[in-house]
Amino acid sequence: IENGKYYSHFKAIGKICSKLPFPWNMGSIITILPKFTYKYIAANRYHWFGKQDNCRIPSQEEKQWFLD
Question: Is this model's pTM higher than 0.90 or not?
C-alpha cells in the first residue's frame, strides 16, 4: 500500500524494486508484463525451483537487511 493505493502481483514487485538502489531498481521493468504471466510463474515455481520444508535462518551478516 502506498499513498492509500493497493498494489499486487507484478505491480507490487515493481513498486518495491523502484525504491531499491541500482541495479535492483531495474527490476521495476517487471510491471510491463501481463498479470497472467505472474500467475503462471506463481503456479509453477515449486515445480521449477523445488520447495523447502523449512525456512533458512539468515546469518549474522544477512540480518542487517531485515527490519526489526
Answer: no
Report the b/e string of 31-52 with b at 16+ CB within 10 A: beeeeeebeeeeeeeeeeeeee
Half-sphere CA count of 66, side-chain side, radius 13 A: 8
Residue 35: how many CA atoms within 13 Å on its side-chain side?
5
Average pLDDT for 37-48 = 91
HSE of 13, CA atoms in CB hemisphere, 13 A: 12
Question: For the chain, how far is it from start to end, CA to CA, in angstroms?
Answer: 20
What is the CA 16 to chain-centroid distance, rounded?
A: 8
User: Does residue 68 carry a pLDDT above 80?
Assistant: no
Q: Please, what is the average pLDDT of the chain?
A: 89
